Automatic annotation (TrEMBL):
One of its GO terms (biological process) is chondroitin sulfate proteoglycan biosynthetic process. PANTHER family: GALACTOSYLGALACTOSYLXYLOSYLPROTEIN 3-BETA-GLUCURONOSYLTRANSFERASE 2, GALACTOSYLGALACTOSYLXYLOSYLPROTEIN 3-BETA-GLUCURONOSYLTRANSFERASE BETA-1,3-GLUCURONYLTRANSFERASE. It is found in: Golgi apparatus membrane. It catalyses: 3-O-(beta-D-galactosyl-(1->3)-beta-D-galactosyl-(1->4)-beta-D-xylosyl)-L-seryl-[protein] + UDP-alpha-D-glucuronate = 3-O-(beta-D-GlcA-(1->3)-beta-D-Gal-(1->3)-beta-D-Gal-(1->4)-beta-D-Xyl)-L-seryl-[protein] + UDP + H(+). It comes from Papio anubis (Olive baboon). This is Galactosylgalactosylxylosylprotein 3-beta-glucuronosyltransferase. Belongs to the glycosyltransferase 43 family. Its EC number is 2.4.1.135.
Length: 323
């Protein structure tokens, strides 16, 4: 039994010696030096070695100060809002006319559409149309008195005045933002360039109008940047021989002249523009646009009269379709 134990001891002895030697070598290795953590003092050394407490925020405070000293970029000036007043009335082509106009207005930045119906109440057709138009808009209505609906009398007077009244009421108790007023009839065609031109109006700006007055165009005559006369085919003696689509007015001018409206009494056919502009400006103050009034950017196109000779008196279709 003893011989067995001695045999096993001598077999394990070399391995025990190897383990002891390895442990002895490992303990003799020098320990790595300890790296001290950086110490941030809450004090700064001032003149004469005085210790001064650091301000809260540390080095970032100086950076903030430097950033504050840099000139800040100036905000871009606010784009003037164009207020487009559009009188409209019920007729077979009304929705088609408004659709064409809305397609133009949607491409104009910062535009507010004031749509005024010649009616005693808002129509469902126009209400639905505006709800789907995707435009900042105001829907008004005012009927034209029957006595003023005779041929030869000025049209849309009450509707334009309703738009003016809404504008003045909207800005009555607040500082008026930069804006321009434009009378956009629904039977005209407008170039997008026209809205860029009118947006810089300081008081009253003017430009040519195509397909009006029995001519290919009418326009203000300009010399040295000033309006000196009118190229027109109808009543050149008018104080402002211009179409309703041929001028824009600064919002500030509208608000500064609260009594300036389109008149019924004493106003002759074709004189509405002159009667209105006389209340707010003079010919000498007009601002020519469209390359000194040499470019046509708006056309008095008018939709062709619709032929409904075959339309049945009573609805025969089983489906009611809005046109």
């Amino acid at each position: 039994m003893k011989s067995v134990l001695f045999t096993r001891f001598f077999i394990l002895l070399p391995w025990i010696l190897i383990v002891i030697i390895m442990l002895d070598v490992d303990t003799r290795k020098p320990a790595p030096p300890l790296t001290p953590r950086p110490y941030f003092s809450p004090y700064a050394v001032g003149r004469g070695g005085a210790r001064l407490p650091l301000r809260r925020g540390g080095p970032a405070h100086g950076t903030q100060k430097r950033n504050q000293s840099r000139p800040q970029p100036q905000p871009e000036p606010q784009l003037p809002t164009i207020y487009a007043i559009t009188p409209t009335y019920s007729r077979p082509v009304q929705k088609a006319e408004l659709t064409r106009l809305a397609n133009t207005f949607r491409q104009v930045a910062q535009l507010h559409w004031i749509l005024v119906e010649d009616a005693a109440a808002r129509s469902e057709l126009v209400s639905r149309f505006l709800a789907r138009a995707g435009l900042p808009s105001t829907h008004l209505h005012v009927p034209t008195p029957r006595r003023y609906k005779r041929p030869g009398l000025p049209r849309a007077t009450e509707q334009r005045n309703a738009g003016l009244a809404w504008l003045r009421q909207r800005h009555q108790h607040q500082r008026a933002q930069p804006g321009v007023l434009f009378f956009a009839d629904d039977d005209n065609t407008y170039s997008l360039e026209l809205f860029q031109e009118m947006r810089t109006t300081r008081k009253v700006s003017v430009w040519p109008v195509g397909l009006v007055g029995g001519r290919r165009y009418e326009r203000p005559l300009v010399e040295n940047g000033k309006v000196v006369g009118w190229y027109t085919g109808w009543r050149a003696d008018r104080p402002f021989a211009i179409d309703m689509a041929g001028f824009a007015v600064s919002l500030q001018v509208i608000l500064s002249n609260p009594k300036a409206v389109f008149k019924r009494r004493g106003s002759q056919p074709g004189m509405q523009e002159s009667d209105f502009l006389k209340q707010i400006t003079t010919v000498e103050e007009l601002e020519p646009k469209a390359n000194n009034c040499t470019k046509v950017l708006v056309w008095h196109t008018r939709t062709e009269k619709v032929n409904l000779a075959n339309e049945p008196k009573y609805r025969l279709d089983t489906v009611k379709i809005e046109v």
